[in-house]
Amino acid sequence: MIRPLARSVPAAPTDRELGAAASHPDLSGEMPLALHCTGLFKRYGALAPVAGLDLDAHRGELLALLGPSGCGKTTTLRLIAGFEEPDSGRIEVGGRVVADLGPGRRRCDPPERRRVGMVFQDYALFPHLSVARNVSFGLPRGGRGESDRRVAAALSAVGMAGMGERMPDQLSGGQQQRVALARALAPNPDLILLDEPFSNLDAELRAAVREEVREILRGAGATAVLVTHDQEEALSLADRVAVMWGGAIVQAGPPEELYHRPVSRAVAAFVGDAQFLPGEANGRRVATVLGDLPVHGQATGAVEVMLRPEALRLAPAQGPASGNGRVLSRLFYGHDQLLTVRLDSGQTLRVRVGAYGGIRPDSRVVVGVRGAVLTFPR
Amino acid sequence: MQTLRPRAARPTVLPGFGRSGRPVVVRRPATGRLASPPTVLWLPALFVVALALLPLGYLVVRAAEAGPLFWETVLREKTARVVLNSALLAAAVAGSTALLAVPLAWLTTRTDLPGRRVWGSLAVLPIVVPSYVGALAVVAAFGPRGSLQGVLEPLGVDRLPSIYGFSGTWLTLTLFTYPYVLLAVRAALQGIDPALAEAARGLGHGPWRVFASTTLPQLRPSIAGGALLAALYALGDFGVPTLLRYDAFTRAVFVQYRSAMDRSAAAVLALLLVAVTVGLILVESRLRGSATLHRIGSGAARSPRPVPLGRWKAPAVAFCALTVALALGLPLLVLGGWLVQAARSGTTFDDLGIAAVHSLSLGAWTAIAATAASLPIALLAVRFPGRWGMLAERVSVLGYALPGIVVALAFVALGVRTPFHQTLALLVVAYAVRFLPEAVAANRLSLLQINPRLEEAARGLGATVVAAVRRVTVPLARPGLLAGASLVLLTTMKELPVTLLLSPTGYDTLATRIWTAANDAAFGQAAAPALLLVAVSAVPTLLLATRERPRA
Fold first, then answer.
1. Is A128 near chain B, with CB under 8 Å?
2. By CA distance, what is A202's nearest residue in B?
3. Residue A111 at interface with chain B, using a CB cutoff of 8 Å
4. Which side of chain A, N or C, has fewer Cβ within a 10 Å radius?
5. Looking at domain A275-377, which of 3.40.50.2300, 3.40.1190.10, 2.40.50.140, 3.40.190.10 is its CATH number?
6. Are A127 and A151 within 8 A, CB to CB?
């Protein structure tokens, strides 16, 4: 199992072609991490949804925890929030140890002492309290004026100013989402956890709310960990994505790095649309049915070459006898199109190209590759 | 999208028993629970459980002290007779209530019986008549020189078969406990998918055969569950066998205690009674097996077409009318008659108000105490299933196995040695222990409807366990908690043996008034408090019975 890149920093989006996390300076000495989990284990009988998990989140970053359903993402979130007790491992929030379990160590703070805000999948707004009372729930009592001021500030931060007297059941799904966010943000926690926050919204609303949520979290300068199984959501929203598999993090890094430099075939296939061709690598080049291609880094021997559909090039063949494949089908999306091509060597490849170009099913084509390719040992 | 609206808990037929009459066992997925329950929950829960186990513990210690007397008492020929008597009574009541309730349930839900809604409500109402009040009415009607004999005398009948003994006790308990079975069976009937019966009709079976081949097997668990409740009631009831002079267990325990002042022998008998009750519960659960865990879905998709009764319409109406006349009309008529007589003879009811206030305030205090005591147990059972849920489950069932007379005996004996002897506090504690299972079951059901994420959200916002319960759980569960509390209030007001044995001297309640008047054969004085009790009980019962109907 591959350890996550220890101290990668989100900062500015890195150069597309060089997702090199190692080139960033080590900041951990200057500022404590907002979240620092090491060696977390959690078992339920024979199941171990969390098995040796290490996870870091930096101040002010939006980290997406991405993984297939049932990979232990939600359990991880619940361990961090304190709703479940890990069997072993250590959790630090904002530099404070909130859980430390293992031989001879039995510290586990209850949720209310962790300064961690949670936004639940179904929002879990208190149905018997107004919007304003929901938001003020986590604020210290007394000092009414102060509390009112903070509630108003939190509500206006999420664009719900003046809706404080509404009851939760009078709100739309998107509004409930924003109230849940305001409620979690109001006590100014060290960390905000979001459990599949957009899964209850319909597709149209989802894109808009995603944008909003990101802006709200940015505006509040909050550190957030978001759990999702939707890779598009993770890639588009997060500063950094941690891919979870079998109870541990297999790769963590900026979205570009994850997409262009997956550490394994499995991650490549999970994040984005990946297809593989066999090849024989020879140092900096690899021989495939699509020709001799340049390789990222070094590789030798039998490998699998990862090809994203948009990294392929398509040109009409000069005659019926030329070209290296035939178009099987075409899905036209408007902004682009996806063509399925059967290579003469037998493999099928998906190729994403621009909306123009009159390549139709059954036409002969030449399939080429843009730039260097990533290889995995076969 | 899932909305988190607080729903009023729908009270079930009987606390601890689901709509089908099965004990409710609810499993929740593994997620959403902490590894270990917080101390603020398990410590009070443990205290309450210990209190609830006190009567049983007392009996065991007392019986152990009896030494050789223990076996002497157990093996006495008289003991064998009362065991047999009680077992016979329980079995007979279980059978007769089922025979009465199943046709009633079917007629009032599945057929074109004229006025079936009205019959449906009327048939449940006898549940509000305390069984000892019912016994008084039965004696008045069918006893020597009773109304029936008065009517028959001109016809030359000057002797009726005696109402005292087994037959009268059986009749009375059947008349006033069949609504338990009726409610269970009716709820199950409403949950059965009518498509099954229609499929059977489509396969060429006639209506009677359909009932026997598809409906009845599905009803079996609820019939068994309801009949078990009736049998347990019969086994633990004190008032009816005493008034109708049937040598049942409870009466023997009381007589042993009162006349001989022989505490050890009474304890041995009481322990034996508990053993018989537990045996009955075990037999039922063994018979049920694990295969038929009857589950009622969220309700039938649509209501089935009523079965036409045809020429059976008149006999069906007559059957309903006769049942309601005996179980509801008779006691009301008798009590009304006595009231009129008493008013004519100038009896005053001045201090009736005081007794009513006493009953009501005792009921209210018990409702508060039992609800508060049951809350930690119910919370543990709901939020920490597994070992803790089991515990709550066990305590609930155990409570049904402890007849009132047993609880009363134990608390009398324990109270004598404390400063609480002859205080209302002790009485309320005994009531609360007696009705704890009811409260636990009712509250557990209402807590189950609350999304555990809401409590977690509160914790995440900085609320402690106690604060989360106070600020989120209790407000959301309020309708259900109130329903459970009113159920406890109602049953407390009707309660007899604990009241008789533990009321401070001179502290009259409606129940003690009725009992004293009945024992003095001063029926006129029993009428007013009995009618008042029935009227007060009817309100929450009607609410429960009407809410049990599935909503569209």
1. yes
2. B1
3. yes
4. N
5. 2.40.50.140
6. no
